[in-house]
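Incident log, support desk, overnight shift.

02:14 A customer reports that sequence design results differ from what the structure should imply. Their input is reproduced verbatim below. On-call engineer (initials T.W.) acknowledged and began investigating.
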């Protein structure tokens, strides 16, 4: 995996980093936890500028996460609720769950987006409640940019400073990312197995 990412970045330069980060935020086949440290490693070798790497990674991430925001915003809370009700057990989300999450997000949306952009697996998903809550796009973009910049800078710096030891980043970051994904899957399966339809009252 490392050879592919480094080769892609070396061949496509900043646009390659941008493209990888866009795709990673829409459908993450390769996590940013691997892309940006390797990009930092390429910069440390003198092939790219570190600030250019950081800018390309941040911009790509913002474009990717904005796509999910716009989809959720166009769908709207009402249609999203209707869809979840139709999907029933598969969605594992009740209308009451959506109402509670919506009210919580209205109170803490800014911090939720910022912190969410720092957490593997959650970084992309946090765009959906932001869109459903109709958070102003400018505010969403500004908060996302702050969180994305911090996360991207941390990963880029790790690869840049470690240079030839960049595999150390892969060794500890990849298991953490995998653990978060596994936890999310376990929670979903538990909700799927224990889901019960809401009975009509009266």
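02:41 Re-run completed on a clean worker. Output:
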């Amino acid at each position: 995996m490392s050879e592919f990412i480094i080769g892609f970045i070396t061949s496509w330069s900043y646009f390659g980093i941008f493209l990888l980060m866009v795709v990673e935020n829409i459908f993450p086949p390769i996590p940013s936890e691997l892309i940006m440290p390797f990009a930092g490693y390429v910069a440390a070798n003198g092939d790219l500028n570190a600030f250019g790497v950081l800018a390309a990674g941040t911009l790509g991430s913002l474009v990717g996460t904005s796509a999910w925001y716009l989809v959720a915003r166009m769908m709207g809370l009402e249609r999203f609720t209707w869809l979840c009700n139709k999907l029933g057990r598969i969605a594992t989300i009740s209308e009451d769950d959506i109402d509670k999450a919506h009210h919580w997000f209205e109170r803490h949306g800014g911090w939720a987006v910022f912190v969410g952009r720092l957490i593997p697996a959650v970084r992309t998903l946090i765009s959906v409640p932001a869109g459903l809550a109709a958070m102003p796009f400018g505010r969403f973009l500004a908060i996302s940019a702050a969180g994305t910049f911090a996360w991207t800078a941390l990963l880029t710096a790790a690869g840049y400073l470690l240079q030839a030891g960049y595999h150390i980043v892969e060794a500890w970051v990849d298991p953490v990312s995998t653990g978060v994904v596994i936890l999310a899957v376990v929670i979903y399966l538990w909700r799927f197995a224990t889901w019960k339809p809401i009975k009509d009252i009266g």
